[in-house]
Design a protein that fits this description.
8% helix; mainly beta
């Protein structure tokens, strides 16, 4: 599990709404063919938002995101400070919200 990291692109189907925790997002990924990774977001404007992914190739720092794998894949490289659009990602402070249920997600996903 990676906090404050988003896996951009490589979406498997449409994003899911009203997914209340990273563990529930992981469960949705496990139940979806071709899904191996996920990114969950719960910030203003994107409440309980789950993106299912086929790859974690485009990793970027993103406050408020929780991303992970449904398998014991090798650990990914550190997130890039350059977004998929080629622009430098700038984050002066960490997100100011608490991620509900994020503490036990390590038991479900990696």
């Amino acid at each position: 599990i990676e906090r404050d990291v988003d896996y951009q692109g490589n979406d498997v189907g449409a994003a899911r709404h009203n997914i209340t925790s990273p563990a529930a997002c992981c469960d949705a990924c496990v139940a979806t063919p071709d899904c191996q990774f996920f990114s969950w977001l719960n910030t203003p404007g994107f409440r309980n938002y789950c993106s299912l992914k086929s790859s974690n190739e485009h990793r970027v720092m993103a406050p408020g995101h929780v991303s992970g794998s449904t398998s014991s894949a090798p650990p990914p490289a550190p997130p890039s400070l350059v977004g998929a659009d080629g622009h430098l990602q700038r984050y002066g402070t960490r997100a100011q919200h608490v991620l509900d249920h994020a503490d036990h997600v390590e038991e479900v996903c990696t």
